[in-house]
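Q: For a teaching session next week I want to show students how multiple molecules come together into a single three-dimensional assembly. I've collected the sequence lines for a complex. Could you give me the predicted structure tokens for the whole thing so I can convert them for display?
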Amino acid sequence: MKNIFIIFTSILSIIYAQNGLEIATMVDNREVPKDIISKTTMLLTNRKEKTRNSTILSKSSNNGSKQILWFLAPSDDKGVAFLKIEHDNKSDEMRMWLPAFKKVRRISSSKKGDSFMGSDLSYEDMTSRSLEENRYKRLEDETLDGKDCFVLEVLPNDDIKSTYSKHITWIDKGSLIAVKEESYDLGGGLRKKKKFFFESISGYDVINKIFVEDIQKNHTTTLTMEDIKVDSGLDQSLFQEKNLKRLPSN
Amino acid sequence: MISRFKKFAVQQSIYHPKRTLIISLFITLIMATGLNHFVIEDDMMKMIPKTVKTRIVWEEVKDEFGNTELVFVAFGNDSIDLFNSGPLADLWDFTTQLELLPEVEDVRSLTNLNKMENDDGFLLIDDLVASRDLSQQQIQEIKDYLNRNDDISKRVISSKDNFFNVIVIPDKNIADRDAVAKIVETADSLLNNYSVHFGGPSYLIGVVGDLVRDDALFLIRIGLLFMVIILLASLRTFAGVIMVLLVIILSLVGMMGSMGWIRGLTGSDRFAFSIMNTSMPIILMTIANSDSVHFLTKFFKKLRLSGDKKIAIEQSIDSLMLPIFLTSLTTAVAFLSLIFAPIEYMTGYGVSIAIGICWAWILSVTLLPSLIMLKEWPLNSKAVIKPSFLEKLVKKTGFKIVKIPRTILISSLLIVSVGVYGIKLITTEVNMISFFSKGNKVRNSLEFLDDKMLGSMDLEFLINGDLKDPILLEQISQLQDYLEKNPYVSTSVSIADIIKQMHRTVMDDNPDFEVIPKDQKKVNNLYTMYSMSGDPEDLSSLVDYEYSKALLTAILKNHSTEQSVKFVNEIDDYVEQNFTKYNNIIPTGQLVVLKDMVDLVIKSSVISIVVSIVVISLIASFFFRHFGWGFFGVIPLSAAVILNFGFMGLLGIHLNHVTALLSSVIIGVGVDFAIHYISQYRRLANQELAISKRTTSVIDEVGYPIVLDALSNMAFAALLFSEFIPLKHMGGLMVFAMVSTSFGTLTILACTLELISHKKTWMNSLLGR
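A: Of course. Below is the structure for the complete assembly, covering every listed component.
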């Protein structure tokens, strides 16, 4: 059914020259798994080629709006856990378990530009873009790594407190997944380059690798998701503070 | 070879004066085109050899933690309360504009500070100032937060809330000069309603170069004017003075142009013009002036005797070719010895001056006689007929010396021995506040920053070790407490502060927990928590990626280099006694590196002086065919060097990268005087002039040009009117160098030779009989 939908939308896109907003709407409406479990390796590399490596067990639902993470490695971080619940009308709720203190602490970073878990992805990068908060302009289509892509220029509305002035996004026409994005800072300079890779799991196109390069800081992040499981029926009660303290066995 | 060149010079100047003039101008013009490649370098740090340990550490710190050299901008008014929407909006705009500048790496001000708070178990790391336009309630919340966090408050606002402090970190790849210009421009455009003060090492480096150069150029021109007046009063010929001036100017253009050409052709930074090179034009002017004055006075003397211009020129060339060649050769070699100096930049200094000296020599013996040839000299003019007042005075001095040589020599040596004592009192000062006189605008700003804000100097410590180990973090915290006990230290910042603050925040804002946790796992958790809730970049200026290096920065009020060195030594002792597990703590920062640089400048000067004395002695020995002449040749020079540094010590004139190089003037001029004296002495002795008449005749012949040369060079006393203290010192030292070199030649050398002349065996040996 989903494949038929994708083929259908692809054909539509070829037949009808959609405008930017229509393409963004198609992407927004793309069918995604109800929940995802993965073991994520995060490799951070700074300008001097020094690296930091972490392994995280991640469970998320509602397209990532609810997420619980447990640090498995390095040993310094093992046991630290993090719960994030996004809200539409108020600040996101974030809690962190600090095993050495035996305390759960609610943390906040209302600064959209702040880094998420020390990576080159900011909270703004991690949050789905609302269609109403941006303007979309379709640019000339391109072929990227053999994939036919829509190219969109995304401009945050003036009343939105964004850390970016614009994004250029390459969207694979087949999967309707953004495969590449360039984000520009408020001064108009290129800030980040992002690349997304995906695989088909249980009929879904699921991102399994993200590469982000912060051009200005000369810093990169590679997130590699392994052992991906989708639609495993995660109980919504998992996303509670008490579950942070116990590292799940699976 | 000398006699062939002598013949050539006579031929060219007497028979082809116009051609010689045109060729001289043409060659100078070609050299002048090198000015297109002339580069001014203000970054003094680049001058320090890359192998010097403090520079290695400093580079390592910059590479790891970004630029650590700061520009402080304080703005406000005595009668204003800055906790109002207008001033806060202005601060917001100023900070934002600075952040957008490509020349700026980072800005730290109240409006881009993070706050870390615990609100009912809720850890919040957020902007302290949420937006440009604030409500009264938001302003009160900011004020309350700063009241609770005094350490943070004093970094961003004065104690009376009437001046904001903005710390700007220029991009490390941009010259301080360019970055400072942009910062000042931004402040001028946005803060014109406030009183604005600037400071900090980068600011000083950014402005000092231009200010000193502009002031020096202006005063050098004034000095040149005085020189013209003195020469005119003594030579009493306007045309003659113009000729001297032309030789000086063409030599200068030749030197600067050559420097540009070499810089352009080799791309070597060693041939960039820095603040250290400020003394170059003055040194060459004195040398070129010396060559020309000697030639012109000799010409008038010969013209007076012969009454024939051609004969006078020929005799002057014949008499002065060797001494001028020798003085130029020895001085050029002395400056070339700077190639061996530990500061690579001195290569450009030495080579360029050497080229200038050679060009001045060629012009003095070709262009100058040609110009003289082209001019009609009325034989009844005062310049030709009558000796000047100065000439008569010098002649009288000659008679005195012959009468009491022993007394004069002993008195002179006593004065020199006072100089030896004074050398021990010399101090080094590299703090640039000492460059500015009281009342100077820059100094006022620096003093304001000291009195009302944190100060504007910084001292960094690179700390190596496991930065997750509570023992090391505790030691850093204790070191900060120790530093802050020093009255000059206003505040200090390190990763230990962040860990302590986070610990307190996690422990429900209980002040008892504002300490380093004892358990390493807790430290690990705090680091992880920060990476989850704040921007890890915030920590990058404090701790490296692998948590193996940290930077402790102390902000200090201005103090002397001597106090700084003492303080650093005390810290070394403290670290040795208290840092048991980790002791790899290295002080760094511009002040520490600059101190090393001045030490190197001094080392370079000492090497230059020693090599010069040896080389000059050898050259003089070779050309005068006896080691004795080599020895006598360097007596006035050595006495003048001792007197110069002794004088500096006695009068409290500090050694810095400008004054330390002034010894070069002494080398340049001192050796000239001695060689002219010895050359004339030998000439007269070889002509079998009676011993009783030798000294008076030599002084009669060379004493006047020596004194006139010294006196005209004293015109650079105009530098005494500079508002920059090193330039003032340079002016004073120029006068002193002229007095000491001429004094050394006409008293110590003259008396020594007078006394020796009566020892027949010694004199015969010296004269090769």
